[in-house]
Recover the amino acids of this structure.
């Protein structure tokens, strides 16, 4: 098809977590010997398309390696050929879809491509499509844009003429639409034609549908349409001898690629090249990538084993269809039942809490002990803890040591809660003060804490692994360097903004890796010396690679990029509107209508105009720049003025400047806007339960827990697509009706206002859709079990190194 | 950089004793080990030794082979300096240049050698099964400073099938006899030769009539005339599969002695083959496959034992295949029973057919029709 250019949208990162740590979604292996992008490229080849452009995000090395010159798809040509068009701005994360702005960066490509039509399609769809027929259908429809989709849903594939496209690209900064789907969904002036692809087509976006799509290939009626003889899917040429089946094997309904050596049993799975399955190993419902080795007696269920994973003898690797067990490249998986871990942190609920960290430690440690991990937590014995718990805790041990030239003595106490052991380190001078933090010598206090933990490890342990949290514990790996049998460490960064910096003289003689540094940055020390690193969401992990987010530590983190994971925090099952005694009317997904009673109670309490048809937007947030107040304040006034049925409730405290400006707006709408400055523990639940929508326009949000709570309460989140917000909220798609909230990417008051208007419109005019969003929000899985499972996978990869 | 060594690969062998496998293709194009062709070995060996100027001398049924090798990209031989060249018989001002013997074939294409102006010319056969690092042969040649060097090995079977030679204590060939009735020697020639380029031209230039080859004519002549001929001993697995039985046995060696050819070992001398672009194979039934090599694109519902399956083979429900080689595209119908068969490309065995033999027997659609178990080809 000479008249067609194919544009492959590989900008989406998806939600693959570890699987895309070192590769793009398009480069993910598929069905034993392919990569996902082979489908788009082969469809082009089979339609004789000779001009293909790929828009990748960041790391496209693996993709480049796979595609090479494009020769396999006849794309190594004199005229036209293959173009890889990376983002020009490498300083900022790019949007998770192909925007007209991205296209404008490479407008020369579009100008030079003589083809009359452009077909856009994502890099991660499994399908065999006749592109020429799709274009013919588009031309026949006389529409300006055709969207190709399936009965099942959208596959974000669009066809349009060159003139139509060029106009949008050239005017990208004037038109209100960012992407093609945006344009199709919202520009009512253009004629859109829908083409239904009748064969199989599945967009792969996360480990769950990735595994499912692989296993779909076992179904004959699907496999036949995806891999027909007349339109083959072509991949990079590799060499392997035929698979060898040895005595003892039992293989049933499985796809096996070349080079495999099979002695064990496999059922309903897909096995890639050169995999070795030893005697008595058992594999079910799993996808194994190249060069995986499964040793004798190991059992694997619902798993995705990345390249070169080795599963040791008699190890059980068990996931579920909804939470497949995922390994990483070259991981060695061994049996770690009876694993013991010590969390080292500055706070843990219920003993001491100043922020979200305390809840994370409590929830995670409990979920881990439920999984069979021996879990312990060590904290400083603050005065507040001593006051409350001195009758309850038990003495464990005493330790005396030299610290900066003085002899110091600590006592250690312990309390057991739900199988989790909490240890407290007692030291009068450093820890027994009125406040938890905020002292000039905080760095010294936590240096002492880390030092003490290093001294008592053997007495309260032994532990297989130390899990460190935030800057307070950053010196610990360095303090353990050279110690015999020192356990490996995982350091979780909860917020990059808190780093703990102290002058070298405080640490002289006690911190071996001090070197020539004039100042010591505790968090940076942790980043440099911990065995592996984690942070609180996959997107925040990616964002920290850019200076805009990673700040002074960007380089240190980039250096550790291969050892750095993002795991979304979970929230407790108990946080649920059915057993919330603080709200007017408890409810669940089956009794959603009762949420209205909570809305009335909130309106009453906040002295807002009553009415079920009012659109109540709630916020529970610190009032700071990071939380997005500058853009909110810039659009709130006009938004309220233009929509008389909108009400706004805020609870929080923070910067006076923002509060003053918010109060000025509130004054104009006394019955529609209420600010609650200061903290009252009862009210957040009333907002979570009573509001219709929950707003978080944050500029930076490492994880964010409020949106998860709001969603569990069926309150629809409107959030900026950043950090944990991007990982927990999926944007509502008006075509497929899928999505559990509303998101926007550009940190811009105008964009925020547009999104608020969209949400308002759906609330007012599409009641059914709105309830659908509420339901999907309530069904989202933010469980601690899920978080604990992902953290365990990291522990295992640390312990198997 | 000047090309040091070029290779001349003889692929014209008719493989008459392999009929009917070689009815429509040259011997080097014969399927081996499910997804290989015999010629893959020599091409992979060349790629692994980084010898990428290759003349392929064709004559008998060249098309399937030319089609298969193409530009040589599957073996990374598609380089801009050098690459794969098909040398076909041609006519010029002196008349037709039909090739008569192996050495004669090389002489016909000496102009190709001259174009590349190499130091050494490596003469190889396209139909041997072995993984060899030719750089070691070159090293032996240079160490001995011989005029040319022959690759030799110790066969498991009767020496009288080969060119038999005796070697002196310094590693030079003393005596040579082609396919002797009563072999008097310890080694057999592999039929691979490394010549100093000037020596090759000289030996081939003078005083020979048209029908001559290396074994019968050149080596005895060179010995008689006092050329120094070194021997390089190859210790690995080597097979020159001239007959149906030896082809069958070499395939079975892959099952019984995988450690001999080590096809799974890609680090040392990988064997490349042209990708068939087929999806992974699908095993549907449970546990009926033992000691089998299975290639891409197969679909297996029945039982298969001690067999080698090429690409796109289908074995239907309750079919039983034993001790057989199934070439690409073979379909074994339900309840069919196949034993000791070499089933050629695209043969369709109808349901319920009994094809049980005592010795390896070649089956194709034509033969099947005659036996009453096939469908009209």
């Amino acid at each position: 098809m000479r008249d067609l250019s194919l544009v492959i949208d590989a900008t989406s990162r998806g939600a693959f977590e570890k699987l895309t740590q070192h590769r793009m979604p398009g480069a993910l292996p598929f069905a034993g010997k392919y990569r996902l992008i082979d489908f788009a490229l082969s469809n082009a080849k089979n339609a004789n398309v000779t001009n293909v452009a790929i828009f990748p995000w960041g790391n496209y090395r693996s993709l480049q390696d796979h595609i090479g010159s494009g020769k396999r798809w006849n794309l190594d040509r004199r005229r036209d050929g293959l173009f890889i068009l990376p983002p020009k701005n490498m300083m900022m994360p790019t949007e998770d879809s192909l925007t007209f702005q991205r296209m404008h960066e490479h407008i020369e490509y579009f100008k030079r491509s003589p083809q009359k039509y452009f077909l856009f399609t994502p890099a991660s769809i499994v399908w065999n499509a006749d592109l020429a027929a799709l274009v013919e259908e588009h031309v026949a429809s006389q529409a300006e844009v055709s969207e190709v989709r399936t009965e099942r849903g959208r596959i974000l594939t669009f066809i349009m003429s060159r003139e139509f496209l060029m106009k949008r690209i050239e005017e990208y900064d004037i038109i209100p639409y960012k992407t093609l789907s945006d344009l199709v969904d919202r520009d009512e002036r253009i004629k859109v034609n829908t083409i239904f692809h009748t064969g199989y087509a599945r967009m792969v976006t996360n480990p769950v549908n990735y595994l499912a799509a692989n296993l779909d290939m076992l179904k004959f009626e699907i496999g036949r349409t995806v891999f027909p003889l007349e339109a083959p899917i072509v991949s990079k040429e590799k060499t392997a001898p035929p698979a060898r089946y040895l005595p003892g094997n039992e293989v049933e309904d499985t796809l096996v690629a070349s080079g495999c050596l099979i002695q064990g049993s496999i059922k309903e799975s897909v096995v890639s090249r050169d995999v070795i399955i030893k005697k008595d190993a058992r594999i079910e419902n799993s996808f194994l990538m190249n060069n995986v080795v499964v040793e004798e007696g190991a059992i694997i269920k619902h798993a995705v084993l990345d390249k070169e994973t080795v599963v040791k003898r008699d190890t059980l690797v068990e996931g579920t269809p909804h939470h497949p067990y995922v390994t990483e490249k070259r991981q060695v998986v061994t049996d770690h039942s009876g694993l013991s871990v010590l969390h080292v942190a500055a706070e843990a609920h219920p003993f001491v809490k100043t922020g979200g960290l305390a809840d994370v430690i409590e929830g995670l440690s409990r979920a881990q002990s439920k999984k069979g991990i021996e879990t312990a937590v060590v904290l400083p014995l603050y005065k507040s803890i001593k006051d409350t718990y001195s009758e309850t805790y038990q003495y464990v041990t005493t330790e005396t040591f030299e610290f900066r030239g003085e002899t110091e003595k600590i006592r250690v106490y312990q309390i057991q809660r739900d199988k989790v052991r909490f240890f407290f380190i007692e030291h009068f001078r450093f820890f027994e003060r009125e406040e938890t933090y905020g002292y000039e010598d905080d760095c010294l206090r936590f240096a002492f804490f880390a030092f003490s933990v290093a001294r008592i490890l053997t007495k309260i342990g032994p532990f297989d692994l130390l899990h460190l949290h935030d800057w307070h514990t950053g010196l610990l790996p360095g303090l353990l360097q050279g110690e015999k049998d020192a356990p490996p460490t995982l350091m979780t960064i909860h917020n990059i903004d808190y780093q703990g910096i102290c002058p070298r003289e405080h640490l002289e003689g006690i911190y071996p890796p001090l070197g020539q540094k004039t100042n010591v940055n505790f968090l940076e020390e942790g980043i440099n010396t911990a065995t592996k690193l984690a942070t609180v969401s996959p997107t925040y992990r990616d964002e920290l690679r850019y200076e805009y987010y990673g700040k002074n530590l960007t380089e240190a983190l980039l250096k550790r990029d291969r050892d750095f994971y993002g795991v979304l925090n979970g929230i407790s099952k108990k946080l649920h509107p059915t057993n919330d005694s603080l709200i007017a009317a408890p409810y669940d997904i089956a009794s959603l209508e009762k949420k209205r009673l909570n809305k009335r109670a909130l309106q009453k309490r906040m002295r807002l105009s009553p009415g079920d048809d009012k659109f109540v937007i709630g916020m529970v947030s610190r009032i700071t720049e990071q939380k997005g107040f500058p853009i909110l304040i810039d659009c709130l006034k006009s938004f309220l003025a233009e929509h008389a049925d909108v009400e706004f409730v805020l609870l929080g405290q923070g910067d006076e400047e923002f509060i003053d400006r918010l109060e000025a707006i509130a004054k104009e709408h006394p019955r529609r806007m209420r600010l609650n400055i200061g903290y009252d523990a009862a009210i957040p639940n009333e907002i979570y339960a009573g509001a219709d929508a929950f707003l978080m326009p944050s500029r930076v949000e490492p994880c964010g827990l409020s949106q998860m709570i709001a969603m569990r309460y069926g309150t629809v989140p409107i959030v900026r697509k950043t950090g944990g917000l991007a990982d927990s909220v999926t944007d509502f798609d008006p075509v497929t009706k899928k999505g559990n909230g509303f998101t926007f990417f550009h940190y811009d008051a105008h964009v925020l206002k547009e999104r608020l208007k969209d949400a308002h419109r759906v609330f007012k005019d599409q009641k059914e859709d709105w309830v659908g969003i509420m339901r999907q929000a309530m069904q989202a899985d933010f469980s601690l079990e899920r978080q604990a499972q992902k953290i365990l996978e990291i522990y295992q990869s640390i312990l198997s190194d | 950089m000047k090309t040091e060594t070029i290779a001349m690969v003889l692929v014209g062998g008719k493989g008459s004793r392999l009929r009917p496998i070689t009815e429509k293709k040259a011997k080097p194009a014969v399927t081996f080990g499910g997804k290989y062709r015999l010629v893959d070995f020599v091409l992979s060996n060349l790629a692994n030794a980084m010898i990428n100027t290759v003349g392929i001398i064709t004559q008998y049924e060249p098309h399937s082979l030319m089609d298969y090798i193409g530009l040589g990209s599957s073996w990374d031989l598609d380089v801009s300096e050098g690459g794969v060249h098909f040398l076909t018989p041609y006519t010029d001002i002196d008349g037709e240049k039909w090739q008569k013997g192996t050495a004669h074939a090389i002489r016909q294409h000496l102009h190709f050698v001259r174009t590349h102006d190499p130091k050494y010319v490596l003469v190889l056969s396209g139909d041997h099964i072995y993984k060899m690092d030719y750089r070691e042969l070159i090293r032996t040649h240079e160490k001995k400073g011989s005029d040319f060097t022959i690759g030799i090995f110790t066969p498991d079977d009767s020496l009288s099938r080969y060119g038999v030679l005796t070697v002196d204590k310094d590693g030079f060939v003393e005596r040579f006899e082609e396919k002797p009735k009563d072999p008097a020697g310890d080694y057999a020639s592999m039929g691979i030769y490394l010549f100093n380029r000037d020596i090759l031209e000289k030996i081939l230039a003078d005083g020979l009539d048209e029908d001559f080859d290396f074994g019968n004519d050149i080596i005895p002549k060179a010995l008689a005339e006092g050329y120094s001929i070194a021997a390089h001993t190859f210790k690995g697995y080597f097979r020159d599969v001239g007959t149906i039985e030896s082809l069958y046995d070499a395939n079975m060696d892959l099952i019984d002695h995988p450690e001999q050819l080590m096809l799974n070992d890609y680090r040392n001398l990988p064997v490349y083959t042209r990708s068939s672009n087929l999806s992974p194979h699908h095993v549907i039934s449970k546990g009926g496959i033992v000691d089998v090599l299975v290639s891409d694109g197969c679909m297996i519902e029945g039982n298969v034992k001690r067999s080698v399956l090429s690409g796109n083979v289908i074995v239907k429900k309750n079919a039983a295949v034993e001790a057989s080689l199934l070439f690409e595209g073979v379909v074994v119908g339900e309840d069919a029973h196949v034993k000791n068969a070499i089933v050629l490309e695209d043969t369709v065995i109808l349901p319920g057919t009994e094809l049980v033999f005592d010795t390896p027997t070649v089956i194709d659609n034509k033969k099947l029709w005659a036996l009453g178990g096939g469908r009209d080809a």
